[in-house]
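Final report, Chapter 2: Outcomes

The project's central promise was a pipeline that accepts a single protein chain and returns its three-dimensional structure in a standardized token representation, suitable for archiving and comparison. That pipeline is now operational. To close this chapter, we reproduce one record exactly as it appears in the project archive, with the input sequence first and the structure output second.
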Amino acid sequence: MRKIHKIILHCSDSDIHDHDNIQTVRQWHLNRGWKDIGYHYFITKDGRVRWGRNPASFGAHCAGHNRDSIGICLSGRRKFTPDQFCSLRMLLIQLMKEFDIPKTAIFGHNHFNKKKSCPNFDVQEIINTL
């Protein structure tokens, strides 16, 4: 198993109802020539956590940071649900425990790429509730 040092949060950048599934996002990434979806986890509007890439594999979600991170994507662009945030908190707690990751190592994608607004929600607000 590779060493995980951080968790990076993303959004799918679409509030279209038909895009609220991991298969759609996986297909977007496959169409780019990637070997699979870039994220390790995907959280749908109803709060279901879906598996993407195996956490033992490098992601393809944040240039320069894929080797030592877990990527979590919430379905949506600007509209997220309480169910998604509840599931995100539970998943973060699980991953922090499993990989010994401190709260200070949870970031939004925009932390590493200032040209991005992703994940389009307040990451610090989520961290403060863990």
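Archive annotation: Residues 109 and 115 are 10 Å apart (CA to CA).
This record, like all others produced under the grant, will remain available to the consortium after the project formally closes.
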